[in-house]
Design goal:
Blueprint: E1 2-9, H1 15-23, E2 35-41, E3 49-56, H2 59-73, E4 89-94
Antiparallel strand pairs: 1-3, 1-4, 2-3
Length: 98
């Protein structure tokens, strides 16, 4: 299993709006080949930090989706959202067990 972990920190007190946007997301990725699940969370000590984890059967499936649909999947971002500069990170993980 391949996991893409994206993290970012909201700079302008819009955490509630961002979380709501994820709850109401259009589910575009759900039918992508190789997609397994998406989880959105934030650490209790910083509600402005968002962790987005997508789980895939393999890295190639993620790359195909990212290359074709990444921009479209971000259409629901709340207007006016600002991020802390340099806070956006993407890490790629290999699942060992669970």
């Amino acid at each position: 299993m391949f996991i893409a972990l994206s993290t970012f920190t909201i700079a302008n007190d819009m955490a509630a709006e961002v979380r709501e946007a994820f709850r109401k997301r259009p589910h575009m990725v759900d039918e992508a080949a190789g997609f397994m699940k998406l989880e959105v969370m934030y650490p209790q000590e910083n509600e402005n930090e968002i962790w987005l984890m997508t789980y895939w059967t393999d890295e190639e499936s993620y790359k195909v989706w990212f290359g074709n649909h990444y921009k479209d999947s971000h259409q629901g971002i709340p207007k006016g959202l600002k991020l802390v500069p340099g806070s956006t990170k993407v890490r790629f993980l290999e699942h060992v067990c669970g």
